[in-house]
Design a protein that fits this description.
alpha+beta, three-stranded antiparallel beta sheet, 29% helix
Length: 83
């Protein structure tokens, strides 16, 4: 069911040359606020693969997030802060 949901999202909500572009056989995300291409970024939970299938480019493996941390907690790891 999850895969079908992601395919439906890719086909109905994400528009080529608005939300993403296809360059050199790869799907690249376009930042919705600045309009810049976000190289190296991928949609999560299979959505990027669904868009790749929609655009008939090579479907790459999904990346897996191992851990996340907020910036505030990241800076708390240091003994001294300056700035």
């Amino acid at each position: 069911m999850h895969t079908i949901g992601q395919i439906l999202r890719a086909y109905s909500l994400y528009e080529k040359d608005v939300d993403y572009v296809v360059q050199e056989g790869k799907v690249l995300i376009v930042d919705e606020f600045t309009g810049r291409i976000l190289a190296g970024r991928r949609y999560s939970e299979g959505l990027h693969q669904a868009i790749e299938a929609k655009e008939q480019v090579t479907v790459e493996r999904d990346t897996q997030t191992m851990a996340t941390i907020t910036l505030q907690n990241y800076f708390r790891l240091y003994k001294k802060l300056a700035g």
